[in-house]
């Protein structure tokens, strides 16, 4: 290999190494286990027993694991993200019953805002006094 070709190859590799990696989709970023850190519902803090609930995302499945009456309980559902919506949308299906929400994903923090089954999709991350809206903040577990 000539010296000139070697220099071109080295600079080409150095340039390629500095190109940004393909950005992961929200669907990829949300995968894994998250723990409820805080939240409000109807303008009031969520019950302390809800903190620590584990929410696991695996493909398009979402499993919530929590304690109720001293027993571990699991609630399984499917979800679909729409990162092109403003704000970003999440649809959750629990046994054929759809729930509409919004989400924001910032590093290891996931915030989900939703109402009750059949409610319209929220438009902002606010849980006003007397509303049925919940805003939940989750932290990724290691």
Question: Any key phrases for this structure?
Answer:
mainly beta, 9 strands, 13% helix, globular, Lipocalin, 142 residues, eight-stranded antiparallel barrel
Q: Could you explain how this protein is built, in words?
A:
It is a single chain. The protein is mainly beta and 142 residues long. The protein has one domain (24-140): Lipocalin. 13% of the residues lie in helices and 46% in strands. The protein has helices at residues 3-17, 26-29, and strands at residues 32-41, 44-45, 54-58, 61-68, 71-82, 89-94, 97-106, 109-114, 134-140. Strands 1-3-4-5-6-7-8-9 form an eight-stranded antiparallel barrel. The protein is globular and about 45 Å long. It starts with a helix and ends with a strand.
Number of strands: 9
Q: How large, in whole angstroms, is the Cα Rg?
A: 21 Å
Helix content: 10-25%
Protein structure class:
mainly beta
Percentage of β-strand residues:
over 45%
| CATH architectural type | Beta Barrel
CATH topology: Lipocalin
Write out the strand line-up for the largest beta sheet, numbering strands in chain order.
1-3-4-5-6-7-8-9
Unreliable residue stretches: 1-19
Q: What distance lies between the first and last C-alpha atoms, to the nearest angstrom?
A: 48 Å
CATH class term = Mainly Beta
Number of helices: 2
Concise synopsis of the structure shown:
This protein is mainly beta and 142 residues long. It has helices at 3-17, 26-29, and strands at residues 32-41, 44-45, 54-58, 61-68, 71-82, 89-94, 97-106, 109-114, 134-140.
Would you spell out the secondary-structure blueprint of this structure?
Elements: H1 3-17, H2 26-29, E1 32-41, E2 44-45, E3 54-58, E4 61-68, E5 71-82, E6 89-94, E7 97-106, E8 109-114, E9 134-140
Antiparallel strand pairs: 1-2, 1-3, 1-9, 3-4, 4-5, 5-6, 6-7, 7-8, 8-9
